[in-house]
């Protein structure tokens, strides 16, 4: 009985995934940010697949995201966190249909990017992600009343290589694009979590831009939903290296 009561009293977060492989990592990060958190997972790869096929988020995908937000609300979640950049704008629109917050995993990263430099590079392996992420950074700049130079680069062929199992090709393409982008940037925003692993070895190098990934920084916004449970971070969230 005590364990059941603890479960009922626990704060609840729902997370909508389009990549099954990130479920465990995201749950662990969320529970570090909010001790005692209970996490509900919705996994739907077709949301991303259909968006890639259309080059933008189609209407039926937008409707399904609203449905997931409603499922989260009906299940007792205090918020829904959408982990996919490509459907982020549809996630924002879904806020109009539920009473709980619908959070984008990439929003804190965009705000941090604008606060960290005047030349911002956006790196994506999906064309469907490049536009939404760039617009997210532009909107963050408007809120902060800044006018950074934004350079957006899509890494052609990298996502296809990763899906086919050719991780080495994916890594070579990403690293080449990243090397080109760092010469033009004070800050580099990674629009896919899979890219962070590729450039991890560069973190010991001196100089260069701030590199931002979404997973760690995305959890910082949970403090506005679960303020009494969030631990104070001891380091800059989402920052891979300076």
**Unreliable runs:** 1-6, 229-237
Physical arrangement of strands within the biggest beta sheet: 6-5-7-8-9
Distance between the termini: 49 Å
* Overall mean pLDDT: 87
Q: For the report, how would you describe the main beta sheet?
A: 5 strands, mixed
Helix percent reads 40-55%
Structural class label = alpha/beta
Radius of gyration from CA coordinates? 18 Å
* Number of distinct beta strands: 9
Beta-strand residue percentage: 15-25%
Number of helices: 11
Shape: globular
Order of helices and strands: HEHEHHEHEHEHEHHEHEHE
Fold topology:
Elements: H1 2-9, E1 12-17, H2 23-33, E2 38-43, H3 45-54, H4 59-74, E3 79-82, H5 88-94, E4 102-104, H6 107-116, E5 119-124, H7 127-143, E6 149-154, H8 158-163, H9 167-182, E7 187-190, H10 194-198, E8 210-212, H11 214-219, E9 239-241
Parallel strand pairs: 1-2, 1-3, 3-4, 5-6, 5-7, 7-8
Antiparallel strand pairs: 8-9
Helix pairs in contact: 4-5, 6-7
Write structural notes for this entry.
The chain is 46% helix and 17% strand. It contains 11 helices and 9 strands. The strands form 2 sheets. Strands 6-5-7-8-9 form a 5-stranded mixed beta sheet, sandwiched between helices. A 4-stranded parallel beta sheet has the order 2-1-3-4, with helices on both faces. The longest helix has 17 residues, at 127-143. The chain is globular and about 50 Å long.
């Amino acid at each position: 009985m005590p364990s059941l009561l603890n479960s009922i009293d626990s704060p609840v977060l729902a997370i909508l995934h389009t990549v099954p492989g990130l479920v465990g990592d995201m749950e662990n990060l969320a529970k570090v940010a909010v001790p005692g958190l209970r996490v509900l997972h919705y996994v739907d790869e077709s949301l991303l697949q259909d968006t890639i096929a259309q080059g933008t988020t189609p209407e039926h995908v937008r409707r399904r995201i609203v449905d997931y937000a409603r499922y989260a609300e009906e299940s007792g979640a205090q918020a829904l966190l959408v982990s996919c950049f490509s459907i982020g704008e549809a996630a924002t629109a879904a806020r109009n249909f539920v009473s709980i917050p619908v959070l984008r995993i990439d929003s804190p990263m965009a705000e941090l990017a604008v606060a960290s430099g005047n030349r911002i590079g956006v790196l994506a392996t999906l064309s469907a992600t490049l536009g939404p992420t760039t617009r997210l950074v532009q909107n963050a700049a408007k809120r902060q009343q800044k006018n950074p130079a934004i350079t957006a680069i899509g890494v052609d062929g990298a996502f296809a290589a990763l899906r086919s199992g050719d991780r080495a090709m994916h890594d070579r393409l990403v690293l080449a694009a990243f090397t080109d982008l760092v010469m033009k940037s004070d800050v580099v925003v990674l629009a896919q979590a899979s890219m962070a692993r590729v450039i991890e070895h560069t973190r010991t190098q001196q100089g260069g831009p701030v590199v931002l990934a979404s997973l760690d920084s995305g959890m910082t916004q949970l403090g506005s939903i679960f303020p009494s449970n969030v631990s104070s971070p001891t380091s800059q969230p989402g920052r891979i290296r300076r």
